[in-house]
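During the no-cost extension, the postdoctoral fellow (Dr. R.K.) reprocessed legacy sequence entries with the updated structure-token encoder. One reprocessed record is reproduced below for audit purposes.
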Amino acid sequence: MPFSEPQATSPPPQNVRAALDALLADRHGSAARNLFLHLAQYSDRRVQKVARNRYGNLLTDAHREELVGEVLFELMNGSLAAFRGQTIGELTAFVRCICDRLVWRLAQKQIRERDTLSETGFAAEMVRAWNGSIPGPADQFRFPAKNPLQEQDSKYLLKLLDAGSRADLARLEGVSRAAVTQRIQRIKRRIAELSDSEQAAAEAWFAQEAERSAGRRRPAV
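Re-encoded structure tokens follow.
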């Protein structure tokens, strides 16, 4: 059951760093509990929103609940320890990026599986007969997303998509992976300063470019 349904929204902590330290240290105090509930509820809302708005024809309720669990697992197993921000706004942007990335990753997996069902051949015909297929709106119409990012940030993110990973981009650029990570974090901070509509546009643009990049890397059959 989604975290946001059975209980009122937990207010964010006043002292983010103290609450984070408590959560990572013992997880039993009231500050730690309140922060965890806040993160869980926000993660649920964000995952539900992105999954429904962008991938409603791909991701089921079960997928969305599983994704919330994956977000919390990633947060509690290293991501929060690596967070260096000081404010609830920075923490929210940090969690939002994790939510969006995991939703996108699962959606790409579902798209690949759907593409497999679109292949020709006797085996594919049998699989289609077992599963069925209902085309979603995205199969009929694709509108280009307006990109609100700075040109240099856009180019760098496209490089990252074409490289395939931070490690691969670091090798191509001749820099350390930490340098790539720092550059991406700076871009994320600039995105977090945009308005809500601009952030949504940036996320939609990145998702479209990621899909195009995945299509270019997919081997021809």
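The radius of gyration is 19 Å. The chain is about 75% helix and 0% strand. The remaining legacy entries will be reprocessed before the final report is submitted.
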